[in-house]
Design a protein that fits this description.
heterodimer; A: 180 residues; mainly alpha; 2 domains; 68% helix; B: 121 residues; elongated
């Protein structure tokens, strides 16, 4: 609960700050906090991935982009009234909906009734892996993971294509637009 | 007492909702593209929370089987979110590459300045 409150506080900082460098570093702290929350919520594999990918790789990518662009955000030209109203209405609707959800941490919530018991009972016999998350990820839902790998491969190719031939143009502020 | 009970039962949902609408607000209201991507990331992590927190059983253990352990938390959301995290970083990399290209072509990553420049030409 304390961790969740800390995360909310950091989010306020991310919304308000205008220096992008500070925002990115706060984003890294936020990801580490999220990883701690995941450990508390028994999702150890997710916590490890979030700490390495969310806090590590994402932050490095962001910092690299900031190095290539600029680190200060300009003051917005128009008032943020409309987005505030939209976000507020969405938030109220979601809070209203949250009262219908089962309370936190009870063992007889609908989510624990259907597929999960099957995995917990059979995965040791089927795959001989004690970690159920691993066995579901790699064995029961292996095609899912294959698709995920395909997505990452595609994204990698797209990034390479976008950044290809970047070196022959000189970086600088306010260049004339290049027609392609 | 009823209010306190509701708060304890739904605190995770409420923080999740707060993170979600902050992400939504940043994406809609801020013109800077790196900031938009950070907002998108906030929105994404709030969805992780939405998936993982119902899977927790109070007094449960992580879903790694062993003698004398249990009850286990639900492993299925963990698997789905592992996939989501990795795909999320792939989309983030793609978005940042686009931002770098936009900065090259326009010399700015502010939405308003890009629109102004487009109107000029």
């Amino acid at each position: 609960m304390v961790l969740l409150t800390l995360m909310a506080a950091i989010t306020v900082g991310v919304v308000r700050l205008r220096n992008l460098f500070a925002v990115v570093v706060l984003g890294g702290i936020y990801s580490f906090l999220m990883a701690s929350v995941m450990i508390v919520l028994d999702a150890v594999d997710v916590a490890m991935t979030e700490a390495s990918v969310g806090a590590g790789v994402s932050t490095v990518l962001m910092l690299g982009t900031l190095y290539l662009t600029k680190t200060e955000e300009t003051r917005p030209a128009h008032t943020p009234l409309l987005p505030l109203v939209v976000a507020g209405i969405t938030g109220i609707a979601l809070v209203y909906g949250s009262f219908a959800l089962p309370p936190f941490g009870v063992a007889d919530a609908p989510i624990h009734m259907h597929v999960a018991p099957y995995y917990l009972e059979n995965s040791l016999r089927d795959t001989l892996v004690p970690n159920v998350v691993t066995s579901v990820l790699a064995s029961y839902r292996g095609y899912d993971t294959l698709g995920e790998t395909a997505v990452i491969f595609t994204a990698g190719i797209a990034v390479l294509m976008l950044l290809k031939g970047r070196r022959d143009v000189k970086p600088g502020p306010k260049r004339k637009r290049v027609r392609r | 007492m009823a209010i306190l009970e509701q708060t304890v039962a739904h605190y995770n949902h409420w923080v999740m909702i707060f993170l979600m609408i902050s992400g939504l607000y940043i994406v809609v209201a801020r013109g800077n593209m790196v900031k938009k991507l950070v907002g998108l990331g906030l929105f994404q992590t709030s969805v992780y929370l939405l998936y993982i927190s119902p899977g927790k059983i109070l007094g449960g253990t992580p879903p790694i089987l062993g003698e004398g352990l249990g009850p286990y938390s639900n492993p299925l959301p963990h698997v789905l979110i592992l996939t989501a995290i990795v795909v999320g970083v792939a989309t983030l990399a793609l978005g940042l590459a686009l931002v770098v290209r936009i900065n090259e072509s326009f010399g700015t990553i502010e939405e308003d300045e890009i629109f102004a420049e487009e109107d000029d030409t």
